[in-house]
Amino acid sequence: MDRANVLWRLALCGLLLAGCAGDRKPEAVRMLGEPLRQGPREVVTDPLLNGVWMMKTAELGGKPFSFAPDFELRIGGNRYGVGLAGNYYDRGRIELFGDELAGQPRRLDTVGEVGPNKAKRISALYRLVGRDLEIIYDLSGANRPVDFVSRPDSQLLRVLYTKKPQQ
Questions:
Q1: Which of 4, 80, 124, 159 could form a Cys-Cys staple with 58, CB 3.0–4.6 A?
Q2: Is the model's pLDDT at 111 over the cut of 80?
Q3: Residue 125 burial (C-beta neighbours within 10 Å; 0-12, 13-18, 19+)
């Protein structure tokens, strides 16, 4: 048997084995320190987050952070876009997890797909306060924030957004 024939048979066996893999249980996966779970992570959304959010205030490293007055965050399902007045130059998906009923703060990760945060995962905490949305991001990528305080000499960005009225 020549070499090409052997490689062809090995490839065919690999395909057949891959087809049988559906009989096995999915492997356990761990996402960002979350408990071990089986199979792929299900998409979780929060309908209260859907809409366009205008930035009210922000602070980075404990100091006021300036921003353009028409800067906005748009959330739809598990998708986000960030930019100026509808020109969303930074886009990607949001992964939500956490159970405030069990004493855990609401947590989210942004996973950049287009723009300056492409291929970056940024961990955050969020909470809804009336018509406002408060998010604190750890821009360093090192850890998830533990509270809603932007400490000096840190890369913690705390942003307070207000929901833009629907037109």
A1: 159
A2: yes
A3: buried
